[in-house]
Each structure stands twice: as structure tokens, then as C-alpha cells.
Design brief:
single chain; 286 residues; mainly beta; six-stranded antiparallel β-barrel; six-stranded antiparallel beta barrel
């Protein structure tokens, strides 16, 4: 995992150091329409809609059915939760929070501060996500800062797709492709399912945890950056290992990963309200 430890800034600058993987948020314009028989050009991805946390990255997100008057949501990693990492099997819902987030402009400049009203959902079981509900609506953020949220895709990511990982913490954008998918990713006591593996160009470091992963062909958010194998160790913290359906273990030192997000929208209904009992919602329940 790539979340920087307090006091480890120098080490992080040099090597991404000792912690959980986070990444900076990204934003994308609508894709241009392609001429007949020509591939659509890549979407421009920048920092608009991303946020910086005290120790991680994140982004302001919407579900496909969210409306402008809904309370806005911020997506980051479960291991970035301010009260500490959820234990294996633990699911947190509707927990009070007043955490602040620095909202970034398209160029990465500081626009202002957003504040949470609660943790709507957080877990490190099967996936690695925290979703905060804010005190602001999408409309108020748009009116005050001119910033629109990133939209979470409802489709499974595609192998080979061009992606960008946008870190608000470091104001850095990583560009690579989806290398493939992992049946189970094991790190310490945590197990994540159907994780997304990057090609080697996305060499994310500590502080990029929680960064949105954007498909450059659509501009949609398809995953949230969370970890990588730093030292070649087997299934330890900061050294996740891949486990296939037959229990075979593969270690890929220097390779980084993200957790898919396409299942999240089914769990949020009218008014961006969490409903874990909704049809199609597969997020782990308390």
C-alpha cells in the first residue's frame, strides 16, 4: 500500500517508501466524437475534480444517476481512513467525519477546501475504498470553483486499455495500460478480489493511494489506485502477491495495482444515499 508514513517525506520523495499506495485524482473532459471509421482520440486528463488529503489522494465523484443537487462524494482508499485502516472483514457505514480535502484545479493549483459530513462507506475487504459524503452539493462546488466531478463507470475495465492515474497528493499523472486482472491480491491480512494490474510505466509511490484511475478513451473513472510490491517480499504489507484460483502465488516486484470501482454505483440510490441492500449491490456488508 502506498500511503506515506508521518515523518517519511524524504524517503517518499526518493522511493515511495514505507506505506500504502495512494494516487492523485484526475479529471477528464468529454471525449471528442470520432469521424467515421476512425478511432476516438484519447480524452484529456488533468487534475480537475481531484483532491489532496493529508496523506493520500482522492477525487470528487458522481454516480451515473447522481444529480447536481445531491451531496457530493469523495472517493479514496479504505486504508486512507482517518480513524485507521479497517480490519479484514470490517465494513464501516455512516460514520461521522469532518475531514477536509484540498480541491485542485485542472493545472493542479489549490482552489479551496471541501469538508466531509460523514464516511458513507469504508472497507478493506474484497476492495480498498472509502467514500465520504461532503457538506457541499455538486452544484455548489461547480458554482464556487467551476469544477465538475468524475463519473464512476459501471463497466468492468478492459485489458490493454490506456489509463492515467492522477495523484492529487503529489500533483503527478502516471500513464500506462491495464496489464490484466488478479483473481486475488493478498497483502498482510487483507484480500482484494479482481484487482487491476498496471503495466510497469505506472510506477506509483507513497501518497498516490486513493488516486482515480481514468480510462483515457472514455474519461470515466474505472478504479482507485492502492498498492504495489516494493521489495519483492511475499504477501506482506507493501508487498502484495497475486493468488490465482488454484492457489498459485506470483510475486511481481515493482508492479502496482488498483481496485475496480464499477460495482459501486449499484449501491447508491436517489440522493447519493448508500443502500447495500439494493439489487446488484455486491459491496461487502457490515
Amino acid at each position: 500500500m502506498k500511503k506515506p508514513l508521518i515523518g517519511a517525506l524524504t524517503a517518499l520523495l526518493l522511493a515511495g517508501a514505507t506505506a500504502l499506495a495512494g494516487a492523485a485524482p484526475a479529471s477528464a473532459a468529454a471525449p471528442a466524437q470520432a469521424a467515421p471509421d476512425k478511432a476516438a482520440p484519447a480524452v484529456t486528463v488533468n487534475f480537475a475534480g481531484t483532491v489532496a488529503l493529508s496523506d493520500c489522494s482522492g477525487s470528487v465523484v458522481r454516480m451515473p444517476n447522481s444529480v447536481s443537487t445531491d451531496p457530493a462524494l469523495v472517493l479514496t482508499n479504505g486504508h486512507c481512513l482517518e480513524t485507521g485502516m479497517p480490519n479484514p472483514g470490517q465494513v464501516i457505514v455512516n460514520q461521522s467525519s469532518s475531514r477536509s480535502f484540498t480541491l485542485l484545479s485542472a493545472s493542479g493549483g489549490r482552489l479551496g477546501t471541501l469538508r466531509a459530513s460523514k464516511v458513507a462507506y469504508s472497507t478493506m475487504t474484497d476492495t480498498d475504498v472509502t467514500i465520504y459524503q461532503l457538506t457541499s452539493t455538486y452544484a455548489s462546488i461547480q458554482s464556487k470553483y467551476g469544477i465538475s466531478p468524475l463519473t464512476i463507470s459501471t463497466a468492468h475495465p478492459t485489458a490493454g486499455a490506456a489509463i492515467k492515474v492522477v495523484s492529487g497528493y503529489w500533483k503527478t499523472v502516471y500513464s500506462c495500460n491495464v496489464d490484466g486482472f488478479v483473481y486475488q491480491l493478498h497483502e498482510g491480512g487483507w484480500v482484494w478480489k479482481d484487482s487491476l494490474r498496471y503495466t510497469s510505466a505506472c510506477n506509483t509511490i507513497g501518497g498516490t493511494s486513493g488516486s482515480p484511475v481514468i480510462d483515457t478513451s472514455t474519461g470515466l473513472l474505472v478504479a482507485v489506485n492502492n498498492t504495489g510490491n516494493e521489495n519483492g517480499e511475499r504477501c506482506t504489507v507493501n508487498n502484495p502477491c497475486e493468488v490465482d484460483a488454484n492457489g498459485n502465488v506470483t510475486i511481481r516486484q515493482g508492479i502496482n495495482y488498483a481496485e475496480e470501482t464499477y460495482g459501486i454505483p449499484a449501491c447508491f440510490g436517489t440522493g447519493n444515499k448508500l443502500n447495500l441492500a439494493a439489487a446488484g449491490c455486491t459491496l461487502p456488508k457490515p
